Amino acid sequence: MIKRRLLSYDIPQLTKVFKKDFPQLVTMAEESESAALFKEALRSFVFSRIDKTVGGSNMGNAVAKRILLLIEHDGMMVFELSTGEEMPVRTITCLWQFLAGKLEEDVSPDFFIDLYRQFELLEKPEEIVPDRSLVKRQMNRWPTGLDEEVMAIRHSNKERIIAGLIRKIERRHAPTSRFQFTEGMSYTEKYVKVQEWWNTGRFHLAMAFKSPTELNYFLGGSLSAGTMDLLARARKKGMPFFVTPYYLSLLNTNTSGYDDAAIRSYILYSEELVDTYGRIKAWEKEDIVVAGQPNAAGWLLPEGHNIHRRYPEVAILIPDSMGRACGGLCASCQRMYDFQSERLNFDFESLKPKETWDKKLRRLMRYFEEDAQLRDILITGGDALMSQNATLRNILDAVYKMAVRKRKANESRPEGEKFAELQRVRLGSRLLAYLPLRITDELVGILRSFKDKASRVGVTQFIIQTHFQSPLEVTPEAKKAIEAILSAGWIITNQLVYTVAASRRGHTAKLRQTLNAMGVVCYYTFSVKGFHENYAVFAPNSRSLQEQQEEKVFGLIPKEKQKELYRLIRYERPLGKKLSGFLKENRLLFAATDRSVLNLPAIGKSMTFQMVGLTTEGKRILKFDHDTGRRHSPIIDRMGEVYIVENKSVAAYLRQLQDMGEDVREYISIWNYSEGRTEPRFSIYEYPDYPFDVTEKMTNLEL
User: Fold this and answer.
1) Which of 289, 340, 344, 562 is deepest in the core (most CB within 10 A)?
2) Taking the complete model, does pTM exceed 0.70, yes or no?
3) What is the pLDDT of residues 332-350, one digit of tens each?
4) Contacts made by residues 570-576, CB under 8 angstroms, sequence distance 24+
5) What is the edge-to-edge ordering of all strands in the sheet holding 491-498?
6) Do 218 and 245 form a contact (C-beta atoms < 8 A)?
7) Mean pLDDT throughout 266-278?
8) Strand, helix or coil at 269?
9) Number of Cβ atoms within 10 Å of the Cβ of 625
C-alpha cells in the first residue's frame, strides 16, 4: 500500500521503494540494454499478469491493459490540442532510465509515484465497492447556507459590512447616485436606510468592492499579508476586482465555523493566475472569431464577438449590454481571457446598449433565423441577467420575433428541406448564487410573459442555466429567487466547476442534494479547463471519475423511473418538494442528472478518454474521443486523435488536499481511474422531435 508520506518522496527515496517492492522490474531494466528491449520485456511481463480465466480479475486486467497502453504510446509524437504543439511521449523510456540508474533528464517524483501506484495495482488489484453510508457521512460534513450556524455567522458578517458601507457612503462623492444619505440623518436612520437598500440588487452592484484594500477592510482585516501582496500585484497588472457586499457576507472570517474554501477560491486569485494574467490564451479555440473566416469548429459567424458556436444545434449570444459584465469575477472563469482583453468588464456605463445595438441585434437574429440547424439559443455573457430589465425584454422580444419568422419561412419549404425551428431558450446566469436579489417581480414577469408567447410558436424548453459552486451559496435569498423563477414556468439547471475545493469528498453530492431540494436540476460537472493560470484550482479528471463511480452512483435514476422524473421536472410544482419526494421514494441521495465532462477545444464536452502517458512533471497525457451521443460539426471527422495534458499531477492534487486538511486515504482509489466514458444525457436535456423532417444541410459552415 502506497503510504501517505510517499507523496513527498524525492527521487532517491523512490528508487529505494521501487527496488524494495518491485525487484523484478528493476532487474528487467538493468538487464535491458535499451528502452526498446525494456519495453518488450515489460510487455511480456504485463501480459503474463492478465487473468484469462472465466471470471478472472476484471480490475487486474484493466490495470494490465492500462500499462500496455503506456508501452504502446511510448516513443510517439502526439499533437496536444490545447497548446497546438507536438510533444513526445516517453513514459516507459523514462521509467527504464530511472530503474536502470541512467536517468538523463529532470523528471518529477510525481511521475514515478503515479507509475508506482499502477504497478502496485497490477500486483494487488483493488476492487472498488461504493459505500452509501460513507457517502452520506461525507455529505454531512458540508453545511448549507440555510443552516442556522451559517446564517448566524452571515448575520454577523452583514452587520460588520453594513457598518462599513455607512462609512463608505458618507465619504462617497457621487451626486448622481441614488444611494446617498440626506443631510442631517442620524446613524440609526442611515443604518435603517442601508438595511433597506441591502435588499436591492442595484445597491450591491453600486457598492461592489473593487480593490484589495477595500476587500480586506470589509473582511474585517482577515486577509494575510501574503494574500494582500498577491492581490496588490494583481491590481498592478490590471486584473479587475468585483465582489458584492452580499457575496462577501458568505465568507467566514472566523477561525472557527464553516469551511468556505469552495467560494473563497472563487474570489481570491491564485499565484498562478496573477503571474499568467496578460498572457492567458483562449482554451476554447472556437471563441476566437475572425471576420470572414470559420472558427476552429468550422462555423462562419457574424462579425464581432457576439456569437460563439461549436455545435450545429446551438449558438451562444453575448449581447452588447451590461450582460457583458458579471455579478462577480470567478477566479477560474473560462471568460478570464475576455476580461483580459476588456471585451468583458465592470464598467457598467460603457456597457449600456448604444443606439446601434437594436440594429445589430436584428442582424444577429437573422443568423439564427437563416441557419438550417440552429434550434437552441443560449444568451449569456458575462451574465445574461446583468442586462437591465428593459434590455433583456428587448432581447427576448427579438428572439421571439426571430422564432416566428423562422417558423413562417418553413411553411414554404418542402418536407426534408425544412430548417430547424427554435425549441430552446436559455439564459446563462450566476446571479442566483452571486446576487439573488437581482431576481425581482419585474424580471420574473418578463420571463413569464416571454414563455407564454414563445410557447405558442414552438419553443418548449425555457431554462435558466445557473452556477452554484457550493451548498453555502444556497441561502434564504437564493431560495426565494429560485422559487420566483420556477413560478414563471422556467426550469433551473446547474453547472458546477469541479475545482479542488469542490472536489473534496461529499461536497458535490451535498450540492446536488441541496439544489434538488430547491427544485434545481443538475446539468454539468465541468473539469477545470485552461492552462497554468488555473493550476491552483484544477482537479484531475481521475477525481471526477472517482466521484462519478463512488459518490454520484447513489443518485443514478433507475431506467424505469426516468420518464416519471422527466414529467415531474417539466410539469409538477412546487418542484423542490416534488423532487424531494421522488428521491425519498426511490432511496436516492440526490438526482444525478448531471454529466461529468471536460470542455475540449473546438470539439466540445467529453469524458471519453484513456491515459496514454505522463509528462516529466507527472501530469497525465489523455487521449480523448468526442461525445458520440450528440451531433458535432463535420470538422470532427477531419480531426485526428485528440491529446490533452492535464494541468496537475495526481500526486500534486493529493498533496493539495492534504494541505486543506483532507485525509488522502479517502482518495486512494483515485489511481484506479485512468479511462473514462461520457455519461448519457438525461432526457430533460434532449431536444424534442419535430413533426416534420429537418434538412440534413448545414449552413454557415466552411471546412
Assistant:
1) 344
2) yes
3) 876 677 778 777 777 777 7
4) 570/491, 570/684, 573/486, 573/487, 574/483, 574/486, 574/519, 575/486, 575/519, 576/482, 576/483, 576/516, 576/517, 576/518, 576/519
5) 307-309, 314-317, 376-379, 424-428, 461-466, 491-498, 521-527, 595-600, 604-606
6) yes
7) 92
8) coil
9) 18
